[in-house]
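User: Fold both of these, please.

Assistant: Here is the first one.
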Amino acid sequence: MSTNHTTMDSPLGVLTLVAANNHDGALSGIYFTGHKGGPAALGDRDDRAFAQVKPQLDEYFAGARTEFDLPLAPRGDDFQHRVWALLRAIPYGRTRTYGELARELGALPQEVGGAIARNPIMIVIPCHRVIGADGSLTGYAGGLDRKWALLALEEPSPALAGRLF
């Protein structure tokens, strides 16, 4: 698959944005520096291809955007796409547990966790909004500090104070 990419600064570090050429430039990846499972190849750099993405991410980080309106083309199997659709349905500032999502899909929490771990479009497909059954933060390909920061951005609370950007 042929792709374009660019990078942008964010409060959580540099983000690499990837778009699939065969999907009219739809966003196919957002990766943090040091991201576990990041892209193997990035393709050509094309800053213009992301003119719609960068402002929406900037608005999100500024607290001015709670939903994204972007064409998406994440690569995954049918089950992963079903999980990612549930992630997109989690409202801004809210969380769900792996178990809740698993029950909704008739799957095991570990299967849901595996699909979430392969989410290629961080932030826009908000896997940071999924927590453990006991309320704990569990794995995040961008690192748990970034997960804390994203949750704090969406729902500031005393428990998260000092963990912000």
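And the second sequence with its predicted structure:
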Amino acid sequence: MNAVILPSRNEPTTIAAVTAAVDAAMDHSRAVIVHADSSDTPQTAEHFTATGTRAAKVSLINLKRGKGAQILAAARCPEISDAETVLIADTDTLNPDPAVYRALLNQVRSGYGLAIADYPRHWDEANLTNHLARPLIAAATGHDVSQPLAGDLALSHDVLTAVRQAAGALPEPLSGCVDGYGIDAFMLLTAIHGPVTSVRFGRPKRHAGSFPHLSAIYHEAVPVLLHMTAARNPALAPPRGGAAPYRVADRALPPGRLKSMLNTLENLCPFSPSGYDEHLWPLPAADAWRAVASGTPAADAARRLWPHYTQRVRSWLTSSQYATARQRAQELAAAHARLYTALTSPGTP
């Protein structure tokens, strides 16, 4: 049996299309779609319930707010306890493609413990992924996962069971992080000791932008990233193929968009003219990783890293507006290599 988990909050305009797409991907009556909702109004759940499907449907409403809390609540449903493969899909996706979900499911059916979508991302998006999550996971685990925080992934029964059990054993404040946006990194890093694969797609996914939630995403995801990667010895050899390839889709930003993004960063963490450019990024990330490896609580290390990270994003947005797609990809790959060197070279400052 296959199952789907659809976490949602206030997505009445997209939930029906996503529900229909995942149902088409499974194409089987012996399947279950679990909608895990924490919306402010009943419309999202009502649209899910009204969508016709071959699969059985389970609607969980009034859940604790937080993407992770919703996914974990669905994972505990008895209706999916016997599912061999579980798909988790973002419910804010515009024009969802059943072929994407089917490809993820097929990879797990073929023996992978976890299959995660690899979409190209627009140059102004995926800031946490490109500047921190991807290079950190690659350096610390040896697995270069192009989109480690992708919201579309499939898991085997054993991996989902391991995620559920590991989440239940976490202390605060990490458990609170995993109840939120930290769930994506947590699922991947729980599974990464086994067979994990990325499924490459040619076009960027159209969905709601994450930049307005940058602070919440950072402070919930980064402690999980630091805690779980610092428990491992860094990889002994660089990924095969040399420099990591980054796919950075080009686009022109609407008038005022860049200014708005920079204003958001300024409100989140005012720019300081000194103190955050002394070490070339991502060396401050390496310092945070070492601090956690030496016993500093991950949440504390993430808070100290936050000004350096926001400055990195500020600099990236400012300089990359004039760069070509190739130049942007080269800069991301160079920073990726610097973090690997910083974590794996003894005595690197």
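The two ends are 51 Å apart (CA to CA).
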